[in-house]
Design goal:
heterodimer, A: about 200 residues, alpha/beta, two-stranded antiparallel sheet, 5 helices, B: about 75% helix
Chain lengths: ~200, ~180
């Protein structure tokens, strides 16, 4: 190759590389802005029954009319996942939660509050979670003082709350459930994501 | 006939891509297993096996792509694998289950037409590896270009990924508000 042409190609390739990196950085910043604007964030769950304390015991009907018992002694741990048809992150978590429930032998209960029952049953069939109890109950959410969604509560076989909190992503739900296996006293409590995505760059 | 440099750039870039993909799947194998299960295409018993097998196939592709002798085989395998992924996504998009995680690795990503388009572009890239290469000595100068061009392609790939992700966040929000 002609050495002049070759040198120019190298220079131009380097320039294109710089431009692509710059564009990537910009796209990432835009992504971070979107994330900052999204409804959920990192918040420590302080309200409601504490980890390590017995869960409130209550029986509530699910969408199909069956009675679901929350808390108390049982065969397998219970995972309460509070979701809503209008919450964007919930859509990511619901499929993960249901497959985790199958793999980890958890009794999964979805909780949601208020609104038309129709909306909830549409959501249940859309997400394909018919086989899990889906409870529409203000009482359930208030007992655990759920204020933001998606919110998870993990209750062990003795009816003790092992961990709970607002979820900000699939990894978070995994941590929450994994902490069950280990013997850490209070579960993972609240693993805080180091800053937002862009700051790693 | 295409220049050997083009073949080298594409195979190195694809090898890099499959390496990253396989690494993600191996590091978060449990997560990948649930992502795979969420596709609802495989019988339950097969899911854990495939979740182990897919990253191994991807890792094997990395090496097969880099060795000139096995490159055509690797190109065909890569095309097939990418086509399988695209089909799996397409089926779930048709089912209206776009909210499942792509399982592509990294941050969660919902399914979209863009991801399928991405796979088709990658398939075309793999296809180019099957085109016969012209006979030319590859020198040190080509190595410099190879590295630069591969870096450009890798960054461009990350850029597209980020834009698709941004777009998903945006469309998700507008559909929820409106």
């Amino acid at each position: 190759m002609d050495s002049y042409v070759f040198e120019m190609v190298i220079v131009l390739s380097a320039a294109v590389l710089v431009l692509v990196i710059a564009m990537f950085a910009l796209a990432r910043q835009i992504g971070v802005l979107h994330t900052r604007m999204s409804p959920a964030g990192n918040q420590v769950a302080v309200a409601g029954p504490k980890e390590g304390q017995p869960s409130p015991l209550l029986s509530v009907p699910d969408l199909q009319g069956n009675t679901v018992t929350v808390g108390g002694a049982r065969d397998i741990p219970q995972l309460l996942l509070f979701v809503s048809p209008t919450c964007p992150i919930c859509k990511e978590l619901v499929p993960l939660a249901s497959s985790m429930a199958d793999n980890e032998k958890l009794s999964l209960v979805f909780g949601s509050d208020g609104g038309q029952v129709k909306k909830h049953s549409d959501y249940v069939s859309k997400m394909g979670i018919e086989k899990y109890p889906y409870v529409v109950s203000l009482e359930l959410g208030m007992k655990f003082e759920v204020d933001k969604l998606p919110y998870a509560v993990l209750i062990d076989e003795q009816g003790i709350i092992r961990s709970k909190g607002l979820l900000d992503g699939p990894e978070h739900l995994e941590n929450l459930v994994e902490s069950m296996g280990s013997d850490s006293e209070s579960g993972l409590g609240y693993p805080v994501k180091e800053q937002l995505i862009g700051d790693q760059a | 006939m295409i220049d050997p440099l083009i073949t080298l750039i594409i195979s190195l870039s694809l090898a890099l891509l499959f390496f990253m993909a396989a690494r993600h799947k191996m590091n978060a194998s449990r997560q990948f297993q649930s992502q795979l299960a969420a596709y609802e295409l495989l019988p339950e018993a097969l899911v854990p096996i495939m979740a182990k097998l897919l990253p191994l196939i991807e890792m094997a592709l990395v090496f097969l792509l880099l060795i000139p002798l096995t490159r055509p085989v690797a190109a065909l395998m890569a095309m097939l694998l990418l086509a399988v992924y695209a089909t799996a996504m397409g089926i779930n998009l048709l089912r209206g289950r776009s909210e499942i995680d792509c399982g592509c690795g990294g941050e969660p990503q919902v399914l979209s037409d863009w991801l399928m388009l991405r796979n088709f572009v990658l398939m075309i890239g793999s296809g180019l590896l099957l085109v016969p290469v012209s006979d030319r000595a590859v020198g040190a100068a080509d190595t410099v270009l190879l590295i630069l061009m591969t870096a450009v392609l890798a960054m461009a790939y990350l850029l597209v990924e980020q834009l698709v992700r941004n777009q998903a966040v945006l469309s998700n929000r507008s559909s929820n508000n409106g």
